[in-house]
Amino acid sequence: MKRFLINFGFFFAVLFATAWCLDKVMTDNLQHSNARVFNTYNVIYNDNLKCDVVIMGSSRGQVQYDPAILDSIIGLNCYNISVDGRCIDAQVTMYGFYCHHALKPKYVIQNIEWGTVLMSNGYEREQYLPYLNTDDMYEQTYKSEGFTWVDRWLPLIRYAGYHEVIKEGLGFKNNLNRPVMYKGFIPRDEIWDGSVFRQIDTLQFTYNPEAVEIFDSYLMRCQEEGVRVVLVYAPIYIGVTQKIGFGVQEMFDFYQSFADRYEMPILDYTYDSLCYDTNFFYNATHLNKTGAEIFTSKLAMDLRKLFAE
Amino acid sequence: MVFNSTPFVLFFVVVFFVYWFPLKRTTKAQNVFLLVASYFFYGYADWKMLPLLMVATAVFYFLGIGIGRSESEKKASWLRTLGVVLGVGLLLYFKYLNFFIESFANLFERIGLHTNWHSFNIIMPLGVSFFTFRLISYVLDVYNGEVEPTRDVVEFATYIAFFPCILSGPIDKPKFISQIHQKREFNYEQAVDGLRQILWGLFKKLVVADNCAVYVDQVFSSYTDQSGSALFFAAILCSFQVYADFSGYSDMAIGVGKLLGFSITRNFNNPFFALNVADFWRRWHMSLTSWITDYVFTPLNFQFRRWGKVGMIMAILINMVVVGLWHGANWTFVVFGLYHGLLFVPLVLSGAFMKKDQLRTNRIGLPALKDLGGMLLTFTLVSIGVIIFRAESIGQALEFFSRIFSVGFFSVGIAGAGIPRRTCLFVAIMLVIEWMQRNQEHGLVLKGVKSVFVRYVCYFGILSFVFMYGVFNETFVYFQF
Questions:
Q1: Using CA of residue B44, residue B45, residue B50, residue B54, what is the dihedral sign?
Q2: Which tens digits make up the pLDDT trace of B273-320?
Q3: Please, which residues have CB within 8 angstroms of residue A5's CB and are 6 or more apart in sequence?
């Protein structure tokens, strides 16, 4: 038994030391990665941001709100911290990370839609890995993303199975997406192909009580900290609204109740002229680069008026 | 609490140290501790069914003693029959009752008789197929004089609930009780081999099986949109998935047993190197086939012996239907068993059924051409069976078959699943290693390797694969059985 324990202990020590070193190297590399999935977190962590306005949302936030246009029209420094494929829980995690590492913003532009107040399904969970060894990130994500103390405290284990991330962390060639990004905005210079529109059978406004609680706490926090939140319904292809009718009125009523409670303005572009032309969309729910530029310009003009009040 | 989970690692570290340090000197205390640990393990997975396991264990313990004490053959026979009825009844109730109700109701509906039968809301206890078989084999072996009835309830209960095997086997025969009874000494070689077997099992499960599962699940869930070649390829990968999943679990169970000083029954012996279907079943889920051979096939074959080969075929067909049905309450499993039974027919008629051919290799160590042909044919036949095994209904299986050949075989298909090249590489690595180690108990036996450096390269190489490409979802195919 003594021999077994010594040999196993030695093996384990070598394993642990290797894991610890690899963890240090990988985490450091990933915290400086420009891959899309890590980019926004890394900019927030490394660049000491001082923004007046942050834009929050999911993929529709990421591809539709151009900070360059907003900067030029409203004259404030904007940054888009939207999280692709994620609902309010992950968006609030991003906001918490932002507030922890950067200067608190004056305004938040919150993109709202039919799927905002749901819980995320773990899509691109790897975005948290480089920061999971910090209390801040672990506390915010262990419940919603299913991380455990093993991921927090043991080296390297949190990266297990994410082979593209491991390759990125070790500096090897990999398939992680690196689109052109400007201040968190990812313009999509693509044309409408109709495939998503054909696939959409049901698009219903729903909400999850846990997500509603997160949304409510986040709005309350903003109010308490003097951060002004503007809720925005971004354009969606009119065919989706007409064809499916995803409980639009119910959705309006839902968000209006929050707007009333926290005295927030809502800017609604659901029936904007953009929504009637597929030339401005690359799919049924996302504006393309041209559409995003026009929409952001309109939004900026409206925000300028709003901020001037 | 599956083997590849954090709770199990913590659980096992505690069990290992308590078992080999404070309790090292007294086997009885070790057994009590093993029993408590096994009940904790089972209760952690399914605490509501723990009383059922305990009561069943107590009943069969007394049945064993009753058979042993019986002065008349008639009484012993009666107690044995009671044990078999109780064991089979347990399985029938929890696993098959709804299946029979629904099947008979459907049958009556088809012949125009309306029934008002409803299925019950029965929750199947985890591992019921495994521990029930242990219970039944105990009363049968005691009756047949193969083992003495144990007077030690702790030893018996530990045999039934032994935590490495309770959820997915292997199904050890009652002779295993003697290992529990004996004093166990820590054996360095055995423990190290156990750790290596666990590592090999992890590779098969997390890297091979779970990567295959990603492709197989995708194709099976959208099989109406896939090309014929994608369906065919999914059937092949599904065979590897089921094998790597179950044999990986078995390797981990056996490895855990070795760390505690036990020698658990081997469950797989490179089934994809089988030369025919009979050979395949001698290598696949060996603890189940051995159990069914002893308690179903041999008595049936004896009963039917006067009909010669026809009798043997009948015994095999019944035997294989039982094997199929053991896997679950669905007609697909009955057809799966029947299909495999029918594959035995040419072997029985040609006399190749009982022949155990040694694998022949050519000069460069690869299988001889004739053997390779046999392996490929057997594998293809097995993969066809896997489609039935995996399908949710016979209709779905038939549609799957028809689509393999009716949709353009080499077309891309609407869903376009493509070829998972990396997964194929993992399967190839597993097969090459198993071929090289085909005469060893598992793929990571390093008896001849003296260099510590080379051994470490092997360990870290496998760990790297698990770390990079493992899929960590903590589900096992055979848990459902």
A1: negative
A2: 999 999 999 999 999 999 999 999 999 989 888 888 899 999 999 999
A3: none
CA B331 remoteness from chain centre? 19
Q: Where are the alpha helices (DSSP H) in B327-420?
A: 331-350, 369-390, 394-406
Cα atoms in the 13 Å half-sphere on the side-chain side of A212: 10
Assigned token pair, B340: 């495999």
Q: Do A161 and B469 touch (CB under 8 A)?
A: yes
pLDDT band of residue A305 (cuts 50, 70, 90) is: very high
Query: Whole-angstrom Cα distance, residue B434 to residue B273?
Result: 9
- pTM for the full predicted model: 0.89
In angstroms, the Cα distances linking A197 to A193, A283, B20, B311 are: 9, 7, 64, 63
User: Amino acid letter at A26?
Assistant: M
Report whether pLDDT(B173) > 70.
yes
Q: Which residue of A has its CA nearest to B473?
A: A161
- Identify the band that residue A204 occupies on the pLDDT scale cut at 50, 70 and 90: confident
Q: Name beta bridge partners: A266.
A: A231
Chain B residue whose CA is closest to A15: B460
- Mean pLDDT of the region A222-241: 93
β pairing state of A281-283 and A286-287: antiparallel
CA–CA dist B2, A163 (Å, integer): 23
| Three-state secondary-structure class, residue A202 | coil
> What pLDDT, on a 0 to 100 scale, did the predictor assign at position A245?
61
**B363 is written with which tokens?**
């000069």
Decide: helix, strand or coil at residue A44.
helix
DSSP single-letter state for residue B284: S
The residue whose two tokens read 């205390």 is B29
| DSSP-derived secondary structure letter, A230 | E
Query: CB-hemisphere CA count at 13 Å for B416?
Result: 2
CB nearest to B470's CB, from A11, A148, A160: A160
Task: Tell me the mean pLDDT in the region B4-17.
Answer: 94
User: Is residue B472 within 8 angstroms of chain A, CB to CB?
Assistant: yes
Q: How does DSSP assign A29-43, residue by residue?
A: HHTT--SHHHHHHHH
ipTM here? 0.84
The H-or-E segment that residue B192 falls in is: helix B188-202
Q: Do A8 and B188 touch (CB under 8 A)?
A: no
What would the pLDDT profile of B241-252 be if each residue is shown by its tens digit? Answer: 999 999 999 999
- Judged by a CB distance cut-off of 8 A, whether residue B415 touches chain A is no
For residue B181 the two structure tokens come to 């009874």
Q: Which of chain A's residues have a Cβ under 8 Å away from the Cβ of B446?
A: none
How many CB atoms are located within 10 Å of the residue A293 CB?
Answer: 17
Whether residue A112 contacts residue A255, with contact meaning beta carbons closer than 8 Å, is answered with: yes
d(CA A57, CA A253): 20
> How high is the pLDDT of residue B413?
52
Residue of chain B nearest A18, judged by CA positions: B460
| C-alpha–C-alpha distance, residues B136 and B56, integer Å | 11
Per-residue pLDDT at B230:
86
pLDDT at residue B474, rounded to an integer: 62
What is the per-residue DSSP string for B306-325?
Answer: GGHHHHHHHHHHHHHHHHHH
